[in-house]
């Protein structure tokens, strides 16, 4: 047999029980042999990897690809350490734009600003007079706008599951939390398809340079994270133009599903549901929001946030609606991915899943809890018993850990973004970033899953740390499993897609100074380091 390519002079970490070896053979985009069997084959091309360590392609099981790509043009605010720095950044961008333009920034975190307060409309008014200003919180769960925007919003009809924050005098500060952000929709929605395609193009380029070969987009078509009702069309356009360069499974926002006629169940028109598509673009789970943000102190908690005795957060939808949607989607055959961060939200979501599964048992449903952030021990046991998948983000501990600790207080930190406990309970653990909430480079995420330290250097429930091997498996096989794709992805075995990353060092022995040297998708090198 003559194959398309043999990649040789490598140190293979295949992710399965095989020893690996030094060569990988590819035919029609799939692995056909590894080790000595690969070296012995005739090939149209032989590529020398120069002794690099080769691992399966990284799979980010929860990210916002379009949001990230389009946000690359926003005013970057993640490094700001005071409200004045935020205002200065806004003023610099405003000076470059015509009067009346939008000034859009993203990535600020009030926990990292002096005084711990959000920017407000008055400061934005001074920084950018005559402009429309919108600043996105790093979590995506809140937005600050200036007076020019605020005056255009229908503040008399705030959606359930959100709020417009008021100052001591009862006037809006400009901060819109959770579903209140939908008040901006008449001004900003829908995003033009061409803008979404360009965002996917730019995101793909970045992802490949970091070794990401497949992703799960955590919400399209509606809700807080959808860019346009025709968002799947943007993905199709990007694929047709060969600018969707990583494999993509898209979660569909629950708000766009509906009851179908003639007993067709609950879903999308034409009866589309989880699994439709191919190895490049597939419909994944229904995406449902139960609550909000931990660092923003809007997620639903059993007990109040530290220092805020009257604040237990809140749900984004009524609890009974949450349970109804989960039951309908489960009955219709969907995989379900429910965002639940606070421990009360997790309890309610577990109740809903348990009721749906009791009423209509289904093997291998792979229903998920996205983030699953504040997970009490009893609820961890229930999650494992129900066969659910927790989808936490290892990088959060580094970039958001100090803010999460401040919100929870020390007594609840051991429950936060658990990794080791989830594995020990017998669950398959995927890895993800929630990018652009934090830096989504997998090598950073891998390191944080092992080190469990905040950006200030403080340990954060170190008993939840993984070994390097466990972290690597989470970013490969675990994430593929959470996407029903482990038959194609996650390991480098004969028959699977030839998606891999060449690294400068051994990720099982060191997390320091690792670099991505090359990334291949379907056996074709899509990125090579300069």
Describe the structure.
The protein is of the alpha/beta class. Helices cover 27% and strands 23% of the residues. The chain is built from 16 helices and 24 strands. It has helices at residues 36-39, 65-71, 83-94, 121-127, 147-150, 185-188, 193-209, 231-240, 319-331, 343-359, 377-385, 396-399, 401-408, 420-424, 442-451, 468-481, and strands at 2-8, 11-12, 24-27, 30-34, 42-48, 53-56, 58-63, 75-76, 102-108, 132-137, 142-145, 162-166, 172-178, 212-220, 247-253, 258-259, 266-267, 281-289, 336-340, 368-371, 389-391, 500-503, 516-521, 524-528. A seven-stranded parallel β-sheet has the order 7-14-15-18-19-20-21. Strands 8-9-10-11-13-12 form a six-stranded mixed β-sheet. Helix 10 links the parallel strand 19 and strand 20 (368-371). The radius of gyration is 23 Å and the shape is globular.
